[in-house]
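Incident log, support desk, overnight shift.

02:14 A customer reports that sequence design results differ from what the structure should imply. Their input is reproduced verbatim below. On-call engineer (initials T.W.) acknowledged and began investigating.
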């Protein structure tokens, strides 16, 4: 083969590598569906608030063209095109936005996910997991599919550092208080074993009184709550006003007045958005909850 032919073959091989090389890299999402990595995505749609937060933390905000109406953080996310809620997605709008990457999450209906796949849209679905450490994996996977691996690695390292510092601060805890975690507003809804919120309480060195119940979410029996007698009640709320309403409801319930947490007024606010979104700010929730349960191990200022 002469030099001209060799050069032509080399150039053709190089061109094929550029055009098709990336297409050979296939990974699977958390529902075990294959996803082909090609060029870095330029038009991304997020189907969940925690996904949106991660994308912005990976400096991909300018590439995000659509989010759910619940995606309210960071503030720039509010200006993005809305594609419905997590369970009532507007498929026509999603198609019109011409995404080259759609990132779904646990909570998006399977039937909707199947319809998106049926339309051959570039969908990658993630699961929430059952423990706090899952957020590191979620961030790394989003870094991979968005081809922001280095940025994801830096973010995960910084979060792991803060996580480790909190765990170190709690290493000498002698008593883990019994905790009732109130969710979904007025009432006695809480989390059981298998939810990452249960793991959040445990990582903050508390004992979730519903932690032995093998259900992620449940309505707690009032008599059982009195029997378990939590030392601390944590109310997940979207605002201080909502928190005050739920706290007043608990304190005014005649049957709950004998509970230790009510008697000692150890009823605390925890930002619902921090604690219920498996994203970077879950570490903020851990730090805050650890300070609530064990203030003696932390300085007043960060």
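02:41 Re-run completed on a clean worker. Output:
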């Amino acid at each position: 083969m002469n030099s001209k032919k060799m050069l032509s073959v080399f150039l053709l091989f190089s061109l094929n590598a550029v055009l098709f090389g990336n297409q050979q890299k296939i990974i699977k999402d958390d529902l075990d569906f294959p996803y082909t990595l090609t060029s870095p995505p330029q038009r991304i749609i997020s189907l969940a608030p925690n996904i949106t937060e991660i994308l912005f933390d990976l400096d991909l905000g300018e590439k995000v063209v659509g989010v759910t109406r619940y995606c309210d953080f960071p503030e720039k996310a509010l200006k993005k095109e809305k594609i419905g809620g997590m369970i009532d997605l507007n498929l026509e709008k999603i198609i019109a936005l011409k995404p080259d990457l759609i990132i779904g999450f646990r909570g998006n209906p399977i039937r909707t996910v199947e319809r998106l796949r049926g339309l051959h849209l570039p969908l990658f679905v993630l699961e929430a997991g059952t423990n706090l450490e899952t957020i590191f994996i979620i961030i790394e996977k989003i870094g991979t599919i968005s081809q922001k691996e280095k940025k994801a690695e830096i973010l995960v390292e910084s979060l792991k550092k803060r996580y480790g510092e909190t765990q170190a601060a709690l290493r000498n805890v002698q008593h883990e208080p019994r905790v009732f975690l109130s969710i979904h507003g007025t009432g006695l809804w809480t989390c059981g074993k298998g939810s990452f919120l249960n793991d959040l309480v445990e990582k903050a060195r508390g004992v979730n009184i519903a932690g032995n119940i093998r259900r992620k979410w449940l309505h707690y029996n009032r008599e059982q709550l009195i029997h378990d007698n939590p030392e601390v009640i944590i109310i997940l709320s979207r605002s201080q006003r909502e928190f005050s309403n739920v706290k007043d409801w608990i304190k005014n319930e005649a049957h709950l007045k004998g509970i230790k947490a009510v008697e000692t007024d150890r009823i605390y606010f925890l930002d619902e958005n921090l604690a219920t979104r498996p994203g970077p700010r879950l570490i903020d929730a851990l730090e805050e909850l650890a300070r609530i349960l064990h203030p003696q191990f932390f300085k007043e200022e960060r």
